[in-house]
Amino acid sequence: MKRTLHGADGYTFVELLVVSTILIILASAVMPLARVTATRQREMELRRVLREMRTAIDRYKDAADLGAISPLELKAGAEGYPPDLQTLIDGVAVPNDATGRKLKFLRRIPPDPMTRDTEWGLRSYQDEPDATRWGGQNVFDVYTTFQGTALDGTKYSDW
Fold this sequence. Notes:
Number of domains: 1
Structural class: mainly alpha
Strand content: 5-15%
Distance between the termini: 58 Å
Largest sheet: 2 strands, antiparallel
Helix content: 25-40%
Number of strands: 6
Oligomer: single chain
């Protein structure tokens, strides 16, 4: 601090200008890093959510193959896959169970971290691998409808 002629302490204009410039430079370096960190967190959340839903679909398929789902619940031509995502939440009847117990595979449809919506792209077992529209027969796979590119250069919809 400098002492002026009048005895008041304070900073000079040049000192304030230098400090402001340093703060601006530091802030400009931190902003891109913060954006990349936020994107990386959303990507990790997308991977986790996709894994959760795909595991639920696989558990449904395994239960259907083992006969743990009532044949009345299975849709003809569905190859043992759920007819839609809502079926994973609502559950399906267990054969020969008088209590009315249901097997449930998901608590809720998780929101897509990229679009912040619960609408997901769906693929059925009968669809072509590169199809962009769901055939509607069953749910074999899910993917994000977000059209962006990930930090590693791949398209999110290919995950």
